[in-house]
From TrEMBL:
UniProt-listed Pfam families: C2
Protein name per the record: Munc13-4
Origin superkingdom: Eukaryota
Protein's organism: Pararge aegeria
Record Gene3D superfamilies: 1.10.357.50, C2 domain (2.60.40.150)
Length: 374
């Protein structure tokens, strides 16, 4: 039955060759599904329970039970085999759609903001084929079809990413491809199910987001990931930095209080430390001062106890994913550069917006760390 429809649906024009889902495919899937649904009633019509009961009377209950379990396993295996045939046929059908989808996606990534019709074509192609399936398949098989579409789409997108990384495509290509994916998600994931149902698609979404970033955005994404890593530190081996911070309208008040258990950087087993604070992303706060504390010599538990008031404009105050980057360094009198001790981050979302005295706010103990990889 599957072999009969394998060559059905190919449409050729002078411009392209594409696959379209036809009712023949739906009939084949429904016929196989009918066989699956008929297996259990067919067994009941054969009177299996009566046969088992007679065997129990003429043989032994143990033999009858073994026979019943064997027959149940045979039936279950037969039903699973038919289910797998349905899945195989759906996968073949969706795989035939992928070359056209791939071509439309590449056009969309190259021309998304220049030619709106490039994305319209892939949407019309998907909608037409999925509508045919929706009209002729039952809910279970249609839902299974959507899952296969997303699974194979994830594989296609992953291959596209790898191929175009080798071609050194600009970030705009991957950003547009990411936008194409989001448009498809909004259109075909209206059932409140998890959008990224496969590990491949989750990986694809991450890679598209990553490679679609410009250099400055990529740098800030790195800092955001460092902040996220900081949340999972339960045993800070590099020490702790204690601060308090608050927003007062468009001003940021930062109190750098103390550090504890700093890693010794000098030969005497101590540290001559100071803290430098910077707001990120750097390009958005280029005109903002980067306050620095006094240096505290020969101390692994420095008490900085300094307050800074940083003026921001209205836009800077409301930048999403803004960060305070706090870096502790050891001042080296005989070196051009000072030694890096550790760093910590404070996200804008962790800073209260209140006119209350800063002394009334809770202290925030930030674990220090060093980047292992970039």
């Amino acid at each position: 039955m599957a072999n009969r429809v394998s060559s059905v649906g190919t449409v050729s024009t002078v411009y392209e060759e594409r696959f379209e889902v036809t009712t023949d495919w739906c009939v084949a899937i429904n016929n196989i599904d009918y066989v699956r649904q008929s297996l259990q009633p067919f067994v009941e019509e054969l009177g299996m329970d009566d046969i088992i009961q007679k065997m129990c009377e003429t043989r032994s209950p143990l033999e009858a039970q073994r026979c019943k379990e064997t027959l149940q396993n045979v039936i279950a295996n037969a039903i699973d085999t038919v289910k797998n045939k349905i899945v195989d046929l759906l996968e073949v059908m969706i795989k035939k759609m992928m070359p056209s989808i791939t071509r439309f996606l590449i056009e969309g990534a190259e021309l998304l903001h220049q030619d709106c019709s490039s994305m319209d074509r892939v949407m019309r192609y998907l909608e037409a084929n999925l509508d045919t399936l929706y009209q002729h398949l039952n809910n279970e098989n249609f839902s299974r079809t959507l899952d296969i579409v997303w699974e194979q789409l994830g594989e296609v997108l992953y291959e596209l990413i790898q191929a175009n990384l080798e071609k050194r495509r600009p970030p705009s290509f991957f950003s547009n491809l990411h936008e194409c994916l989001k448009i498809m998600v909004r259109s075909f994931r209206q059932d409140n199910k998890d959008i990224y149902t496969s590990d491949t698609l989750k990986r694809v979404e991450y890679l598209l987001n990553l490679h679609g970033l410009e250099t400055r955005e990529l740098i800030h994404q790195y800092h955001l990931e460092r902040w996220q890593d900081q949340q999972s530190i339960t045993e800070p081996k590099m020490g702790l930095l204690t601060v308090r911070a608050q927003f007062i309208e468009d001003s940021l008040k930062l109190e750098i209080m103390n550090a504890r258990n700093l890693v010794p950087t000098d030969s005497n087993g101590l540290c001559d430390s100071y803290v430098r604070a910077a707001l990120l992303p750097e390009d958005a706060f280029a005109n903002v001062e980067k306050p620095k504390t006094q240096t505290h010599s020969k101390n692994l538990f420095p008490l900085y106890d300094e307050m800074f008031l940083i003026s921001l404009n209205h836009e800077q105050r409301r930048i999403p994913d803004g960060l305070i980057h706090l870096v502790i360094k050891d001042k080296d009198m005989f070196s051009v550069s000072n030694t890096f001790v550790g760093e910590a981050y404070l996200h804008f979302s962790e800073i209260p917006d209140t006119p209350a005295p800063i002394s009334s706010l809770p202290q925030q103990h930030l674990p220090l760390s060093r980047p292992a990889t970039i």
